[in-house]
């Protein structure tokens, strides 16, 4: 059953080839057998899942789009009655008292949550090593990282421990782990999917989105989670198209731009070759490929590492030991309580970012750093705007390297930050992006990123679906987990 895609499972369930209970039991067993090797789950909720599966089986008639299929949620989505830790000691004892809107919508669609997946602490990282619960491993090579920060959701899906999963993407955290794990990952347009109940890292950049085996699976997931939410004032009130119906539209005549800046130094020649092969497939489908320029792309990482920490220093001030989360033992006074609760509750990377952010926002430096970074953000958006006056999508690698070894970059934050060179500008501009598997190098997956204009997720899903009909990279399963 786990070799089927989510869309195939939805159809098989409708035709009663197997029940949701059988399907969920199968995945529960797989998690029990395999997750020890991957550490992809923080909280596994088999009883709850089996209970929900029985309910799904008992539904008749007009059931939800995802009725009976198992999914996994990054442990950043508040889930009523279930621990929601953000992979931090700070929230190790936090049981969410309500569901995030994404969780409510997935429940309404009939999806079944197998549990909460591991991640970088508070979604800060590109390797899923900074979790309080230990590093996540890549199923293609368990000595390597799955990427981050949504590494648990990507690793679990690549090993077929779930049928689809949810991640969040602030600077690349859906697309980069999708690339490193050989699966499909979609970051929707900022505002397309509600952020209500999704624990905030950098609110102007964060966006939840799905991982699927295929672009078609991502279309099913997006269909279920997209839409306006009055509980999130930045969610956009705009009709949700029928993403699934649009998948079969021909892509002939679409124009795809390759930013020249992304194919210069710093890109591994073997990765570049895989991207070229993928371009050939798109050409064979009738797409036109042309060179474009994103002149300010090189500034994206520098701007992001001012803006994201600035927002996180503000967002994370709520974790003060008073209202929820970790509180230190025997505080001697209020200040000691604040200070020790935060010093003991947060890990090194989170503290590093809070410090950078507080510094960048301080009175004497605001203009020099924060304001400057905002101006760069505008320039980057303008670059994309110019690009989309000429092309339908922008194509690049997703990540400059394949999966790296555990501990290889964890002591070198700057090198780690560079992993997101191709993805971060997309968040700064608020655009949608997808990562698609395009092959393997030394047994490790390579991903390609496509970016489209605002609310044009359809273009990405359509291109992805048509590409995947011509290729089978996305269907490969790591041998240890077959
Ligand atoms: N790797 C980036 C960071 O560390 C992006 C993380 C994310 O998208 N959540 O901030």
Secondary structure: elements and pairs:
Layout: H1 6-14, H2 20-38, E1 41-44, H3 46-58, E2 70-74, H4 101-108, E3 112-117, H5 151-158, E4 164-169, H6 175-181, E5 184-187, E6 207-212, H7 215-225, H8 243-246, E7 255-259, H9 269-284, E8 288-292, H10 300-315, H11 334-345, H12 348-361, H13 367-388, E9 393-397, H14 413-417, H15 424-429, E10 433-441, E11 444-452, H16 457-470
Helix pairs in contact: 2-3, 7-16, 10-12, 10-13
The chain binds glutamine.
Glutamine binds next to loops.
Give an account of the 3D structure.
By secondary structure, this protein is an alpha/beta fold. It has one domain (6-257, 388-481): Amidase signature (AS) domain (Amidase signature (AS) enzymes), CATH 3.90.1300.10. It contains 16 helices and 11 strands. It has helices spanning 6-14, 20-38, 46-58, 101-108, 151-158, 175-181, 215-225, 243-246, 269-284, 300-315, 334-345, 348-361, 367-388, 413-417, 424-429, 457-470; strands at residues 41-44, 70-74, 112-117, 164-169, 184-187, 207-212, 255-259, 288-292, 393-397, 433-441, 444-452. The chain has an 11-stranded mixed beta sheet with strand order 1-3-2-4-6-5-10-11-9-7-8, with helices on both faces. Strand 2, helix 4 (101-108) and strand 3 (112-117) form a beta-alpha-beta unit. Helix 10 packs across helix 13. The N and C termini lie close together (11 Å). The relative contact order is 0.14. The structure holds glutamine. Glutamine is lined by residues 123-126, 149, 169-173, 201, 308, 420.
């Amino acid at each position: 059953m786990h070799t089927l895609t989510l869309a195939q499972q939805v159809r098989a369930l409708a035709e009663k080839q197997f029940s949701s209970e059988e399907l969920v039991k199968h995945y529960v067993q797989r998690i029990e057998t395999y997750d020890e090797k991957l550490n992809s789950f923080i909280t596994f909720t088999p009883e709850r899942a089996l209970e929900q599966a029985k309910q799904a089986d008992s539904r008749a008639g007009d059931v939800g789009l995802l009725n009976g299929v198992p999914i996994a949620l990054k442990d950043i989505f508040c889930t009523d009655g279930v621990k929601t830790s953000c992979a931090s000691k700070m929230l190790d004892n936090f049981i969410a008292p309500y569901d995030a809107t994404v969780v409510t919508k997935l429940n309404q669609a009939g999806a079944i949550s197998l549990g909460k997946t591991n991640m970088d602490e508070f979604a800060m990282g590109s390797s899923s090593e900074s979790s309080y619960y230990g590093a996540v491993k890549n199923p293609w090579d368990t000595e390597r990282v799955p990427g981050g920060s949504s590494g648990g959701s990507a690793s679990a899906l690549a090993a077929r421990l779930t049928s689809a999963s949810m991640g969040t993407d602030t600077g690349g955290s859906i697309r980069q782990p999708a690339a490193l794990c050989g699966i499909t990952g979609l970051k929707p347009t900022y505002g397309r999917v509600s952020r209500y109940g999704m624990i905030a890292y950098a609110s102007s950049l964060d966006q939840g989105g799905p991982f699927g085996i295929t672009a078609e699976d991502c279309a099913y997931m997006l269909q279920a989670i997209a839409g306006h939410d009055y509980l999130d004032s930045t969610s956009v009130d705009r009709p949700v198209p029928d993403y699934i119906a649009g998948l079969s539209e021909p892509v002939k005549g679409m124009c795809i731009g390759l930013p020249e800046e992304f194919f210069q130094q710093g890109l591994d020649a073997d990765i570049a070759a895989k991207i070229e092969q993928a371009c050939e497939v798109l050409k064979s489908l009738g797409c036109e490929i042309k060179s474009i320029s994103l002149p300010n792309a090189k500034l994206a990482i520098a701007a992001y590492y001012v803006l994201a920490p600035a927002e996180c220093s503000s967002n994370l001030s709520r974790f003060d030991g008073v209202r929820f989360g970790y509180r230190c033992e025997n505080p001697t006074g209020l200040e000691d309580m604040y200070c020790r609760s935060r010093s003991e509750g947060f890990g090194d990377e989170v503290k590093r970012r809070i410090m950078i952010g507080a510094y960048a926002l301080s009175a004497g430096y605001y203009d020099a750093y924060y304001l400057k970074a905002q101006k760069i953000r505008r320039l980057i958006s303008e670059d994309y705007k110019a690009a989309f006056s000429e092309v339908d999508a922008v194509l690049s690698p997703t990540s400059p390297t394949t999966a790296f070894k555990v501990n290889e970059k964890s002591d070198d934050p700057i090198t780690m930050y560079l992993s997101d060179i191709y993805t971060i500008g997309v968040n700064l501009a608020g655009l949608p992006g997808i990562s698609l598997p395009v092959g393997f190098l030394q047994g490790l997956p390579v991903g390609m990123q496509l970016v489209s204009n605002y609310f044009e997720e359809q273009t990405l899903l359509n291109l992805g679906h048509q590409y995947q009909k011509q290729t089978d990279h996305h269907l490969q399963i790591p041998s240890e987990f077959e």
